[in-house]
């Protein structure tokens, strides 16, 4: 089980990302548009820098939904490798079978 503070910190980051998502996307589109002049693009980048750091989507960490473990995360299931194996062996994940050859 991950530290509760780490899990809560990541949840706060998710909320901030959701709050600033529209503004961030709009400014990012302006900053990446090469048809605009450099002044407008620079202003967009400066405004992007004013957004809180935790409002950036890259700051969010993928974590297991049951344990909060950040490593060995499978996006398809939302679980880490250890929980995926345990739940798979118990037959609680539909369509997942233990391989044997």
Describe the structure.
- There is one protein chain.
- By secondary structure, this protein is mainly alpha-helical.
- The chain has two domains: 4-61, Helix Hairpins (Orthogonal Bundle), CATH 1.10.287; 67-101, no CATH class.
- 51% of the residues lie in helices and 4% in strands.
- The protein contains three helices and two strands.
- A two-stranded antiparallel ribbon has the order 1-2.
- Strand 1 (73-74) and strand 2 (79-80) form a beta hairpin.
- Helix 1 (4-32) runs antiparallel to helix 2.
- It starts with a helix and ends in an 11-residue tail after the last helix.
Describe the SSE topology.
Elements lengths: L3 H29 L5 H13 L22 E2 L4 E2 H10 L11
Antiparallel strand pairs: 1-2
Query: What global shape is seen?
Result: elongated
Q: Kindly give the count of domains.
A: 2
Multimerization state: single chain
Can you give the mean pLDDT? Answer: 94
CATH topology of the largest domain: Helix Hairpins
| Alpha-carbon Rg, integer | 20 Å
How are the strands ordered across the major sheet?
A: 1-2
β-strand number: 2
| Tally of DSSP helical segments | 3
Terminal Cα span:
33 Å
Q: Give the CATH level 1 class of the largest domain.
A: Mainly Alpha
Structural class: mainly alpha
pLDDT under 50 segments (min length 5)? none
Pfam family, one: Ribosomal_S14
Keywords: Ribonucleoprotein, Ribosomal protein, RNA-binding, rRNA-binding
Family: Belongs to the universal ribosomal protein uS14 family.
Protein name: Small ribosomal subunit protein uS14
């Amino acid at each position: 089980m991950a530290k509760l503070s780490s899990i809560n910190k990541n949840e706060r980051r998710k909320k901030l990302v959701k709050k600033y998502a529209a503004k961030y996307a709009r400014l990012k589109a302006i900053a990446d548009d090469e048809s605009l002049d450099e002044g407008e693009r620079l202003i967009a980048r400066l405004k992007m820098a004013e957004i809180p750091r935790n409002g950036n989507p890259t700051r969010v960490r993928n974590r297991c939904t049951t344990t909060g473990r950040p490593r060995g995360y499978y996006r398809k299931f939302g679980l880490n490798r250890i929980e995926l194996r345990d739940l798979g062996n118990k037959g609680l994940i539909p369509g997942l079978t233990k391989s044997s050859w």
